[in-house]
Design brief:
60 residues; 0% strand; elongated; mainly alpha; 3 helices
Length: 60
């Protein structure tokens, strides 16, 4: 049995990270920056949606 297959994300992140690891160092740095920015945008958009949902009922 392989533990790696059970722990792999299903959104393509795992394969994206594996591709990045195979690149030269300079390209890896740029690629990881792009992954970071993408994940940051996703988190920020989720946080904004949560705060918008709370604002109408929690506004004082």
């Amino acid at each position: 049995m392989s533990d790696d297959t059970d722990a792999q994300p299903t959104d393509g992140l795992w394969s994206r990270l594996r591709l990045i690891e195979g690149q030269p160092l300079a390209a890896r740095a740029e690629a990881y920056t792009a992954v970071h920015d993408d994940l940051f945008r996703r988190l920020e958009s989720g946080a904004k949606l949560d705060s918008r949902e709370k604002t109408p009922s929690g506004d004082r």
